[in-house]
Every structure is written in structure tokens, then in C-alpha cells.
Automatic annotation (TrEMBL):
Protein's name in the database: Uncharacterized protein
Keywords, alphabetical: Membrane, Transmembrane, Transmembrane helix
Keyword Membrane annotated: yes
Region described as Disordered: spans on this chain: 411-445
Compositionally biased tracts (Polar residues): 432-445
Length: 445
């Protein structure tokens, strides 16, 4: 049995390759599984996602009218315009059959569920393995690499939770289990991030990123640097950087918790959003009556007071809708994924000799990349029978893939209440009914 321990006072041995952490097969597996999940999410959003579908709708419930996210509607309509034209000319139809639409929706949902499960398993495996090896003298460089690999699993799992919002609302037990799993994964990652939040890791970062000042820190036991807290946290850049990462993970997780529960999304934050919107419109109406009524279209009050205030209100509405859209979720995932790829590839390029050779475990990890594709092929098999398809006919009975929805208002920024005087476009408050979103649709977050 090999010796397992560490000595912070002794000079550490030379840093040797660890194929189970920085091996090319292991890195390929973690990046590959996250890439597959990212690809499935993007395809689902661009081709299958229906922004007009209420994520909190059930078969046996009749809720208030649902207000689709205007950012998702405008973007998807623009993206799907060309494929819709091609389908119309090729198949002489612009609508998929109800059965095909339901089947396609459920197929992608099952693929996303499989990808979500895979990210949970990979995230826990790398973090638990890293924590278990800390007392065996795991090198600081390898500990940093473990944290970066776990970042992929966490951000991909968070995005899967958002895309699966409607499915998880219908299956509350599954929603609870997945949130508990994500909470545990986020907790492990937060502890790992905070463990690198002190000034001793500055030297380690400098070596990793090609600024060798203290090579001793690179191969020293990571546990020797973990429980060292800065004397002045507010002035410690490393601590503040770790704290920002922790806040991002925490905010991302709790925002998913809110979005997956109707009582929080609609009952609390939706009502608060509606209350603030009503108060803001009242203030805007007061300023409108004071600055615009029976006044010249180019009056100083209208130009200096009312129009800037209206611009601020509309900008706030646009930012709010963009932040709560699934498009923002996909863009955030792309940016975070790209940033994680750059960091890992940079580390490997700086320490290329530490990658090591192909071992049994690395070959197995690469071969296991075929598992997600096999799973997806099973879901797309035409002979597969989905047990959860029953009861979805009403839920997904809205317009199918590439179905135009010309009868519904696309955005609260539209103004179609009738002819508008070009000399005084903001001279009539009644023309703002749609612009200021004064409808009775229920808001969500």
C-alpha cells in the first residue's frame, strides 16, 4: 500500500503528470460531455422551444393569460423564418402534425434529462475525487485544474435546469431531486473556490499563467494553502476574485430555484415586478400630463423631462425581458463555456509536459463519450414509446415548430393602436397601451 500524506514544511517533489486529472483523455471527456449538452440545448432552443408556452401550465389548470417573453419571440421568429420557408416549399405545409410536434418536444426533453444526469455524475466524480486526494498531498496545480473542470459540469447543469423548466414543474419529485443534486454540486464547488481565495495562491496563479515567481507553490500540497485566510480580505485580489465566482454560482443557483417554482416566480417576484411597473407607469403618466398635454410637440418640458424618463422606462423593460429570456441563458452558457475552454487550454499549453501519456483510464474516458450519442439515438428511434407522452397533448397543443403566430403581439414596445401624428408621436397617452405593457397578462421571472 502506497504512502498517503503530506508535509507542508518539507520541500515538495517535482510535479509529476496525473493522468486522472490532467490527462488528455480525461480533459476530452469532461469538455466533450459539456459540449454535447451545450449543443443539445442550442438545437432545442432554436428548433423546438416555444416561447408562447406557459412553463407553469398543466392539463387540469386554467390560468390567467400568459405573456410570452418578447425577446425570445422576436429572436426565434427571425431565426426560424428561413427554415419555415424551406419547409413550406418542400413539404407544402407550415405545420407539423400534433403527434410529431409532441414527439419532437419529448425527444429533446429526454435528451436534456440524460445530459443533465451526466453532468451531475461528472461534476460530483471530479470534485469528490479531488477532496479525497487533498490529504494525500494533491498538488496545488492539480487542485486548480479540478475546480476548472467542475465549472463545466455546474454551468451546464444550471442551464439544463432552466430549459427543463416546464417539464420539472409537472414532475415535482424529480424537480426536488435535481435541485438537491445541483445544490450539493454547487456547495462542493463553492468550497473549492473559497479554498483558493488567499494571497498564497497568487504565486501559484503566476506560475500557471506563465509568470514564474515561485515554482515551489505549483507542486506543493494544495491543502497547505487552503486554510490560510487573508488578514485584509477587502484588499486581497485573489480573495475578491474567488468571492465573485462564489456569488455568481450562488445567484445562478437561486435564480433557478425561483424559476422552477411557480409560487416564487409568479406569486412573489411576478407580483413585485407588476407592482413596480404600475407605480412607474403612474409616475410616467403624471409627468406626461404635466409636460405633454396641450403643449407644443417640441416644448422644453417634453424634451427634457418626459422623453428621457420614457426612454429610461422602456430601456428598463427591455433589460428586464432580456435578462429573463432563454436567449440570455443560452448566450450566458456560450460565454461561460468559451471562457472555461480558454482557461483549461491555456493551463495545458503552459504545462504541456504534465499531460502525461495515454493510460487505461484515459482511453476508457474517451470511449465513454459515445454513451451520450447512444442514449440520444435511442430517444430518436421511431419505435421508442415514451411513457411520459400521455397527457402532453393539451400542454403542447399550441402552434408547432415554425408555426407563425401573427395574431399575437410580439413585444410590449410595439405601438399599433391606430394612426399616430408624426408631428407629435407622444401626444396621446392612449397610444401607449401596448408600449407600456398595460395588459392583464401574468408576469413571470
Amino acid at each position: 500500500m502506497s504512502h498517503c500524506g503530506y508535509d507542508c514544511s518539507a520541500e515538495p517533489p517535482a510535479l509529476s503528470p496525473d493522468g486522472d486529472i490532467t490527462g488528455i483523455g480525461i480533459v476530452t471527456n469532461y469538455i466533450g460531455t459539456a459540449s454535447i449538452a451545450l449543443l443539445v440545448i442550442i438545437i432545442y432552443y432554436l428548433g423546438v422551444f416555444q416561447p408562447s408556452h406557459d412553463p407553469f401550465e398543466k392539463d387540469d389548470q386554467i390560468d390567467d393569460p400568459f405573456r410570452p417573453n418578447p425577446v425570445d419571440e422576436v429572436f426565434l421568429r427571425a431565426v426560424r423564418w428561413a427554415p419555415r420557408r424551406i419547409l413550406k416549399r418542400t413539404f407544402k405545409s407550415r405545420r407539423m402534425s400534433p403527434y410529431a410536434s409532441i414527439r419532437l418536444q419529448q425527444t429533446f426533453i429526454n435528451c436534456l434529462l440524460a445530459m443533465s444526469d451526466l453532468q451531475i455524475v461528472t461534476g460530483f466524480s471530479i470534485l469528490i475525487s479531488g477532496f479525497a486526494q487533498l490529504r494525500c498531498g494533491l498538488a496545488a496545480y492539480h487542485w486548480l485544474f479540478i475546480i476548472k473542470l467542475a465549472w463545466f459540469s455546474s454551468l451546464t447543469q444550471l442551464s439544463c435546469l432552466t430549459v427543463l423548466r416546464s417539464h420539472l414543474y409537472r414532475f415535482s419529485t424529480e424537480r426536488l431531486l435535481r435541485l438537491l443534486a445541483m445544490g450539493g454540486l454547487a456547495t462542493f464547488l463553492v468550497v473549492g473556490l473559497l479554498s483558493t481565495g488567499n494571497s498564497e495562491w497568487d504565486d501559484i496563479y503566476q506560475v500557471v499563467y506563465g509568470l514564474p515567481d515561485n515554482a515551489w507553490g505549483l507542486n506543493s500540497p494544495a491543502i497547505c494553502h487552503i486554510w490560510v485566510f487573508p488578514e485584509s480580505p477587502a484588499r486581497d485580489i485573489t480573495f475578491l476574485s474567488a468571492l465573485v465566482s462564489v456569488i455568481l454560482i450562488g445567484v445562478a443557483f437561486f435564480s433557478r430555484v425561483i424559476k422552477l417554482h411557480k409560487a416564487l416566480s409568479v406569486g412573489v417576484f411576478g407580483r413585485a415586478r407588476k407592482w413596480l411597473s404600475i407605480r412607474a407607469r403612474r409616475i410616467l403618466r403624471i409627468v406626461f400630463d404635466w409636460a405633454c398635454k396641450e403643449r407644443h410637440p417640441h416644448s422644453l418640458r417634453r424634451s427634457i423631462c418626459y422623453r428621457p424618463l420614457l426612454a429610461v422606462f422602456l430601456t428598463a423593460c427591455l433589460v428586464r425581458d432580456a435578462w429573463s429570456s432563454v436567449l440570455f441563458e443560452v448566450i450566458w452558457l456560450l460565454v461561460a463555456f468559451g471562457w472555461g475552454i480558454v482557461r483549461i487550454l491555456w493551463d495545458l499549453s503552459q504545462e504541456g509536459s504534465l499531460v502525461g501519456h495515454w493510460t487505461f483510464g484515459q482511453v476508457v474516458a474517451v470511449v465513454l463519450l459515445a454513451a451520450p450519442f447512444i442514449t440520444m439515438m435511442q430517444y430518436f428511434n421511431k419505435d421508442t414509446i415514451y411513457s411520459r407522452t400521455a397527457g402532453l397533448e393539451n400542454v403542447f397543443s399550441r402552434p408547432a415548430l415554425y408555426e407563425p403566430q401573427a395574431t399575437r403581439t410580439l413585444t410590449p414596445l410595439s405601438m399599433d393602436q391606430g394612426p399616430i401624428d408624426p408631428e407629435s408621436p407622444d401626444g396621446d397617452w392612449d397610444s401607449y397601451t401596448d408600449t407600456l405593457a398595460t395588459s392583464s397578462h401574468k408576469p413571470t421571472i
